[in-house]
Amino acid sequence: MSVEKVEVLVVGAGQAGVAMSEHLGRAGVPHLVLERARIAERWRTERWDSLVANGPAWHDRFPGLDFPGNPDAFVAKEAVADYFVDYAEKIAAPIRCGVEVTSVRRNTGRPGFRAETSAGVIEADYVVAATGPFQRPVIPALVPETAGLTQLHSAAYRNPGQLPPGAVLVVGAGSSGAQIAAELMQAGRKVYLSVGPHDRPPRRYRGRDFVWWLGVLNKWDAEAMPGAEHTTIAVTGAEGGHTVDFRRLAAEGMTLVGRTEGFRDGVMAFAPDLAANLAHGDANYLSVLDEADAYVARNGLDLPEEPTARIIGPDPACVTDPILSLDLAQAGITTILWATGFALDFGWLQIDAFDAQGRPQHKRGVSVEPGVYFLGLPWQTRRGSSFIWGVWYDAKYVADHIVKQRAYTLYRPATAAE
Ligand SMILES: Cc1cc2nc3c(=O)[nH]c(=O)nc-3n(C[C@H](O)[C@H](O)[C@H](O)COP(=O)(O)OP(=O)(O)OC[C@H]3O[C@@H](n4cnc5c(N)ncnc54)[C@H](O)[C@@H]3O)c2cc1C
Q1: Cβ < 6 A, ligand 1 pocket
Q2: Are 338 and 154 in contact (CB under 8 A)?
Q3: CB–CB of 328/233 below 8 Å?
Q4: Are 322 and 272 a contacting pair, CB within 8 Å?
């Protein structure tokens, strides 16, 4: 049986796979991208209906193509997916959709890799795992399925109408949790929001979006610091974009609680850390304003002052007198919505490039297993790595590395050639 051979096999056609294809194509490296579903599938079917990009269109994009329309708008998720389909077409990316890679193993006794796929075997000299920073939804094992509650992860949430009638406990107040909780409250639900430690940058300050501030302050390029691999960031582009303000949500009727800690006999326990978590978020918010002000002063920029941005509202009762335990049935809660993040899952990549916890071992995406690369990991090289614009630069680095390695593989001594 003949086996299809490719030089570079890219697994996954989200933004990372498309960016990888652009750089490999530009360097003239033959490659194939396999996608189990459709291009940018996660944006289409693994996010909630009303999601818009967290960054404005002028920023959250690849250098080679603008989003149509207002560059300051926050693009709806379907339009983000369409953008990558258009981009793939523009660069004539060799993407084969509807093909799942089920395993990749190193060949024995000869170079290269053997990929088993839903459409047969493919052999490749190099493999790029571009299967996303957010692969497997994580739900902490706190509440048994037998508790009589609807439980779902933010990745499975679509809209308020999907949930049974009743109040909702949203666990996690990063970008997903904060946005979903606000949407549920606007739909008339009673909402409890469990708020853990988080950063809470201002959406806009002195006439500029925070993505601009993080750019000029060179924070998108910050490299991962030990122990700071994951920071929950509460930011939203919904309704034209505004700063996430938990106190305002509480004033509008949401009940805030601390980190969700345990569950017993229908009663949920929360840590006494709500005030501290809000204070941490405030400190982060104010530090961005301080650094922005210093930048304006140092560079003599003419950006309008905005002293009201420093006004932080009074603590609501749920903060000054925190709820530490809650009988969910008594509170009318019928649904727990876990906005508790994602884990990596490289079960299909059966090579020796992971630590004991299953984390990829790599430097800037170049794995410890020669010939295998990662792309799109959180903090792969910097804060921006898992975001649309950041992955494009990481893809360039990975493509350059493949080009260099390929030159060694293709080299033959002149004498042998004679
Ligand atoms: C709710 C949410 C909102 C976000 N908003 C923004 C934002 O506004 N701006 C921004 O820049 N970033 C945002 N991000 C982060 C990031 O841009 C997205 O997560 C993006 O989808 C990551 O792109 P990717 O290509 O790395 O991975 P993915 O989009 O996850 O693409 C990986 C692809 O690989 C495919 N795949 C997986 N396994 C296999 C296999 N074994 N065989 C074949 N194919 C496979 C999947 O089907 C998928 O299409 C957001 C993330 C989330 C969760």
Answers
A1: 11-17, 34-37, 41-43, 47, 51, 53-55, 60, 100-101, 130-134, 176, 348, 376, 386-388, 391
A2: yes
A3: no
A4: yes
Kindly report, residue by residue over 8-65, the tens digit of the pLDDT.
999 999 999 999 999 999 999 999 999 999 999 999 999 999 999 999 999 999 999 9
What is the distance in A from the centroid of ligand 1 to the CA of 225?
23
Residue spans of the chain under pLDDT 70: 1, 224-230, 416-418
pLDDT of amino acid 227 = 55
Cα–Cα distances (Å) from 279 to 108, 201, 258, in that order, read: 56, 13, 12
CB 250 within 8 A of CB 319: yes
Distance spanning both ends of the chain, measured CA to CA:
35
Which atom from ligand 1 is nearest to the alpha carbon of 176? Answer: 1
367: part of which helix (H) or strand (E)?
strand 366-367
What pLDDT, on a 0 to 100 scale, did the predictor assign at position 1? 66
Beta bridge partners, 120, equal: 117
Write out the DSSP string of 107-151: PSSSSSEEEEETTEEEEEEEEEE---S--EE---TTS-GGGS-EE
What are 380-391's pLDDT values in tens digits?
999 999 999 999
Look at residues 361, 364, 388 and name the one whose alpha carbon lies nearest to residue 22. 388
* Global confidence as pTM: 0.95
Nearest protein Cα to ligand 1, atom 16? 387
Kind and range of the H or E run holding 23: helix 15-26
- How close is the Cα of 122 to the center of ligand 1, in Å? 24
Q: 15: CA distance to ligand 1 center in Å?
A: 7
CA distance 326 to 337: 16
Positive/negative CA dihedral, 202, 207, 213, 215: positive
Helical packing angle, 15-26 and 77-90, nearest 10°: 20
Closest CA to 192 of 149, 241, 238, 145: 149
> Can you spell out the DSSP letters for 304-361?
---GGGG--PPPPHHHHS---EEETTTTTEEEEEE---EE---TTB-SS-B-TTS-B-
Dist. CA 283 → ligand 1 center (Å): 30
> What was the pLDDT predicted at 231?
75
Task: Walk me through the domains of the chain, giving residue ranges and CATH numbers.
Answer: 4-135+344-410 (3.50.50.60), 139-338 (3.50.50.60)
Q: What is the pLDDT of residue 213?
A: 97
Q: Whose CA is nearest to atom 38 of ligand 1?
A: 131
